[in-house]
Design goal:
The protein contains 7 helices and 10 strands. The chain has about 240 residues and is an alpha/beta fold.
Amino acid sequence: MSDPNNIIEMNNVGIRYGQGPEILSDIKLALPRGSFHFLTGQSGAGKTSLLSLMYLAQKPSRGQISVFNHNLSFANRDQLASLRRRIGVVFQDFRLIEHLSAFDNVALPLRVSGMDEREIRKRVTELLTWVELDAHMQDQTSILSGGEKQRVAIARAVINRPDLLLADEPTGNVDNIIAGKLMKLFVELNKLGTTVVIATHSDKIINDFAYPRLHLQNRGLHIYYPSDMSALGGVHV
């Protein structure tokens, strides 16, 4: 039985694509509710694959996964859809609806949930102003720069205050000033109770924010806490 204090549990999880070798092997993870972790590892180590397991886009080749205390081995399609609605995801390729404005992209999760339009306008306007996109609210996302699209994608992922936020390189297309501001947004969301996992290659972000690190290496997962980060030595992330 899963621990109710954990938002995600993985037990002896492996994942492979087709008949190829396992990308990840014997992954064991207990992610406490309200925690904040960085996810690191060399390119190709399996960070995106691990995130895809967490946001229920991928099934493991073996092992068991529990999300929000639901064993995914026994979850049907409707249950999976209900669980996904509690997860915010920031993808590397943004996955915005290009013909919609920045405002409408961010408002979409709130409209799907049936929120009053006046409250939607208030929340979306405040958040897009915070990420310095107030001048681009009505612009189609197709004409925005990569960094602007990144901020729209982040705003959309956090607008409904998800129970779990998963972000794949969320600061990869912005400068250090905007990156710091986005990180503060993630920190504030975490303080409100959201569990946060951020995959990143940025040593600056990792050093500026003292959170534990989930590090993928040799198909396995290792957890490092701020006090023992030196154990990573010269490993590049």
